[in-house]
Each structure stands twice: as structure tokens, then as C-alpha cells.
TrEMBL record:
<dbReference type="InterPro" id="IPR028994">
    <property type="entry name" value="Integrin_alpha_N"/>
</dbReference>
<protein>
    <recommendedName>
        <fullName>VCBS repeat-containing protein</fullName>
    </recommendedName>
</protein>
Length: 377
């Protein structure tokens, strides 16, 4: 039986209980469930433990506020690898053992959802910030925290601006959705390059390379449950109404493959979609009906070195309501859950750390904290 057929019978429940709730959640980013988590998520605990993961506080700095992106790479002039930690107030560079190398505050306040991007392709990272519905304007900073570009939206702009090369000139542009105008494509130097009307309001927007051709695609979801994949130029390549209720989604990649997949939580499953919006993987995810995907990464499976199907998924899901819980899932790509932990705080970022014989360790970023999870031998 196809995945779609199997989930169809769950749809009625979703339509009844999910539709109203989802619209509110999509519109406001919170609302359903009020201030309290569902009873299954009331307590922080490990609920599935097929693989023991050792959890250790790796870095702590409360003035980071929420850690929204984590990257491993060489970000300064030396030859060593660092860990870049981007928070909503400041950025820190750590040595590979988690010791602080340097930190700086952004020269602009009230940033949300800060992510590392290389907009101009020169090998150095810029930091792209967004915001929630109706709150701070999107901005691009350089590694020193200077503001390279900022957009003061007249109408409500959605968070999560992305980057695509919309005119195929080799330099990426910033794309964001503004209510009543549509998709807007900006060059930090030249300003607004293009305005693209869309038929339905956009709730969420993400960009990533879904087909491996080196060009980033643009993925949007609407309040009507329709997901759309567009080429870098804005042309629609796939569009589908997902047959379950969902909130936000994420594009998840891996260290070894540039190709990202679209990860969405629906019913008690996680679905990974390819560029045609057909499912690539379906993962067991108890309680996912209360949650949306906040961050995810594909990790090399323990003892495997081949590409592709042996990857595991590690993902962080947050509550669709206004309550503070995250759930960490580690799944085999064929679906079974390896590890699940209900976390008593909000997490927003995850990245691969090291790959060893016993498996792959990863970092998870929360409010002022970065945790290291290492598979136990
Ligand atoms: Ca750059
Ligand atoms: Ca361009
Ligand atoms: Ca592509």
C-alpha cells in the first residue's frame, strides 16, 4: 500500500481536529494548546532508547539567547576547524572541544532565526536573519556583525528569508515573502530585483538544493496546506496539498551530500520529500501530531560509509502550541525510531559533529546552550 493510501484514513481525524487548529497555528505561529503541553509531553524524559546516547553540556552562554544555527567549518584565518554558534543576540566561535574562541554581539537588535549563508559565494559566511510574522525585519550581516542589508517591510513580512540565484548570474539573492506583495527578491547592493505574485499567502519559506544540480530551490507552504517547490527563477516545479495537517517544515541536508530533503511532521510520522514532493522516507515519530520540524540533519549511520540510504535522521521538533517543549528524534532512514527524548526547553538547531565507529555524534542548540550527543560504545 502506498504511503498516501495508508495515511488517508487518518485524514478525517486531522480534518476535524487539525484544520481549525492548524490555520491558527500557521497564521500566528502559536495558539492551539494554549500554554500547556499535551500530557504525553508534560515531563522531560527519554521515551525510546534503542541506542544509548551520552548527553553532555558542550557550551553555555545565556546572552546568546536562542541558538538558531550551528555550523562546523574553518571560519577564521587559522587552519583549524571551529564551531559557529549563531544565537538571536550574538555569535560565538568555539574550538572543536567547545572552548570559546571569540563572541560578538550583533550591531542590530531583535534578530530572530539567524542562519549562516554564503550569499556571494566567496567562501565566507554571511548571517541572514528573519523573524516571526509581523516582527523584526529581515537583515543580512557580515561575520563582524555589521548590517549589510535590512528590509523594513511596509506590510507584514514572514520570517525565514532564503537565498536563491533568481537570475542565474552566479550570485544569490535574498528572497522573502511579504503579505500583499508576494515573493520579493533582493540584492543587498541593488535593492529589489523582482516581485512575484503568488496565488495563496505563504506561511513558511525555505531554500535549499533539492535535486543536486547546485542551484537552490525555493519551497513554500501555504495556510491551505499546499506545499510548492519553485526553481531558483520562481517557476513552479511541483505543488501538492499534503493529506495531513502540518505546521512549519525544514529542509534537511547532510555533510556528505549537498542534496536537501523537505522534512514535515504530520500525524505521528515524519515525512521526507524529494523535489517532486513525493516521499523519500517515512519515519516513526510518536507525538509528531503536536509538533512541527524546527531543525534536522541526515547523519551517516553507525558503521556505514556508503552514501544515501544508510543515512539516519536526527531532528528537533517543537510544539505547535505556545508551550515550551522540544522532542529529539533519531530515526533509521527506513523509518524505525532509534532514540526519542522529550526536552524540557526549546531547541532550534542541530548539526553533525563527528563520525566514529560507534556512530555519529551531533550538537543540538537551545536557549543559551549547546548540547553534545555521542553514541555510547
Ligand atoms: Ca560570503
Ligand atoms: Ca543572482
Ligand atoms: Ca537544485
Amino acid at each position: 500500500m502506498s504511503i498516501w493510501k495508508r495515511i488517508r484514513h487518518l485524514r478525517t481525524f486531522s480534518m476535524l481536529t487539525g484544520a481549525v487548529c492548524t490555520s491558527v497555528v500557521l497564521l500566528l505561529g502559536n495558539g492551539c494548546g494554549g500554554g500547556f503541553p499535551p500530557k504525553e509531553l508534560a515531563e522531560a524524559r527519554i521515551t525510546v532508547n534503542r541506542r544509548t546516547l551520552e548527553k553532555k553540556l558542550f557550551f553555555e552562554d545565556s546572552s546568546l539567547n536562542l541558538v538558531t544555527d550551528l555550523r562546523i567549518g574553518n571560519f577564521d584565518a587559522d587552519l583549524e576547524e571551529e564551531i559557529l554558534v549563531l544565537g538571536s543576540n550574538k555569535a560565538c566561535l568555539l574550538k572543536s572541544d567547545g572552548v570559546r574562541k571569540s563572541c560578538l554581539l550583533y550591531k542590530i537588535d531583535n534578530l530572530l532565526d539567524v542562519r549562516a549563508v554564503d550569499l556571494d559565494g566567496d567562501g565566507t559566511q554571511e548571517w541572514l536573519a528573519g523573524g516571526l510574522w509581523g516582527t523584526p525585519s529581515p537583515a543580512l550581516l557580515n561575520m563582524h556583525g555589521d548590517v549589510l542589508w535590512k528590509y523594513d517591510a511596509k506590510y507584514k513580512a514572514m520570517g525565514d528569508p532564503g537565498i536563491v540565484d533568481m537570475n542565474n548570474d552566479g550570485t544569490k539573492e535574498i528572497v522573502l515573502y511579504e503579505q500583499s506583495r508576494g515573493l520579493l527578491f533582493f540584492s543587498p547592493a541593488k535593492g529589489l530585483l523582482k516581485e512575484l505574485k503568488v496565488s495563496q499567502p505563504v506561511a513558511h519559506l525555505k531554500t535549499g538544493d533539492l535535486d543536486g544540480d547546485g542551484l537552490l530551490e525555493l519551497v513554500t507552504s501555504g495556510f491551505d496546506g499546499v506545499m510548492t517547490v519553485r526553481k531558483n527563477t520562481g517557476e513552479i516545479v511541483a505543488q501538492k496539498k499534503l493529506p495531513f495537517s502540518y505546521s512549519d517544515f525544514e529542509l534537511v541536508g547532510s555533510d556528505r551530500q549537498a542534496v536537501s530533503q523537505i522534512l514535515v511532521a504530520g500525524e505521528d510520522q515524519l515525512y521526507a520529500f524529494g523535489p517532486d514532493l513525493n516521499p523519500v522516507s517515512k519515519l516513526d515519530a510518536p507525538f509528531a501530531r503536536y509538533l512541527h520540524v524546527a531543525a534536522g540533519v541526515r547523519l551517516p549511520a553507525a558503521g556505514r560509509t556508503t552514501r544515501g540510504e544508510s543515512d539516519e535522521y536526527a531532528s528537533i521538533l517543537n510544539g505547535r502550541g505556545g508551550w515550551h517543549r522540544s522532542v529529539l528524534y533519531v530515526n533509521e532512514s527506513s523509518g524505525p525510531l532509534i532514540y526519542q527524548e522529550i526536552l524540557d526547553e526549546n531547541f532550534q538547531s542541530i548539526c553533525q559533529f563527528r563520525s566514529e565507529g560507534s556512530g555519529t555524534s551531533f550538537l543540538v542548540g537551545g536557549r543559551g546552550k549547546v548540547w553534545l550527543y555521542t553514541p555510547h560504545r
